[in-house]
């Protein structure tokens, strides 16, 4: 078995669990629920990952792999002929670029969340939050520009896009990112209903209050 330290609220862990489903490897994953935090690391993960972050994968020979990009590369290597992460050529670099854009959107969203939940009120920076919001808006515009060509097949690129959009819905419900991004919204509605994504949607027993964000447009 492969052991995956994860959290149901982590979009990066969702990339891995959704990818495992696409690759037909979900039944080889033993999921270990974790409590990641940007300051207080989960001690249970530290023996495998000194950063104490999810996702972290422990392979059958005891080797540890992290982060989501490395883990997905490893999982794809176990399935000859898979199309989640093409082996080479232009198709590979297209999905890697999409993954980088989706990861960047997530990084900006998480920085906003951490600013609101962890930093004391007096130390918060409106300029910092605005800068991250601008990154999110630009990323959404870039996804919108190619949404019509994304199709229905799930790659690591489109899984990352879906994980990012789902995270915005989950943690920033006031953002209204669909406004001005109709093609992306249409694609996401179809993609998010596919089993690999529908079965890995984020949820929390008691979610902390979401920081309010202005519309993405």
Automatic annotation (TrEMBL):
GO terms for molecular function: transferase activity. It comes from the Bacteria. Pfam families: GST_C_2, GST_N_2. The keyword Transferase applies. Transmembrane segments: none annotated. InterPro entries: Glutathione-S-Trfase_C_sf (IPR036282), Glutathione_S-Trfase_N (IPR004045), GST_Omega/HSP26 (IPR050983), Thioredoxin-like_sf (IPR036249). GO terms for cellular component: cytoplasm. Keywords: Transferase. Gene3D superfamilies: 1.20.1050.10, Glutaredoxin. The keyword Transferase applies. Residues 1-83 form the GST N-terminal domain. PANTHER family: GLUTATHIONE S-TRANSFERASE OMEGA (PTHR43968:SF6), PTHR43968. This is Glutathione S-transferase.
């Amino acid at each position: 078995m492969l052991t995956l330290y994860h959290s149901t609220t982590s979009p990066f862990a969702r990339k891995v669990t959704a990818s495992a489903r696409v690759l037909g490897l979900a039944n080889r994953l033993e999921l270990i629920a974790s409590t990641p935090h940007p300051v207080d690391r989960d001690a249970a993960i530290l023996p495998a990952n000194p950063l104490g972050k999810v996702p972290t994968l422990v392979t059958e020979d005891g080797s540890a792999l992290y982060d989501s990009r490395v883990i997905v590369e490893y999982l794809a290597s176990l399935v000859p002929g898979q199309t989640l992460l093409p082996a080479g050529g232009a198709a590979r670099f297209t999905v890697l670029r999409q993954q980088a854009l989706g990861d960047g959107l997530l990084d900006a969203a998480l920085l906003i969340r951490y600013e609101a939940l962890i930093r004391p009120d007096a130390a918060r920076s409106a300029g910092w939050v605005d800068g991250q919001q601008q990154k999110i808006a630009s990323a959404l515009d870039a996804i919108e520009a190619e949404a019509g060509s994304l199709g229905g097949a799930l790659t690591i690129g489109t899984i990352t896009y879906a994980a990012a959009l789902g995270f915005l819905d989950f943690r920033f419900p006031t953002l209204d990112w669909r406004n001005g991004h109709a093609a992306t919204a249409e694609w996401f509605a179809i993609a998010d209903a596919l089993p690999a994504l529908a079965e890995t949607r984020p949820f929390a027993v008691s979610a902390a209050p979401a920081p309010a964000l202005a519309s993405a447009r």
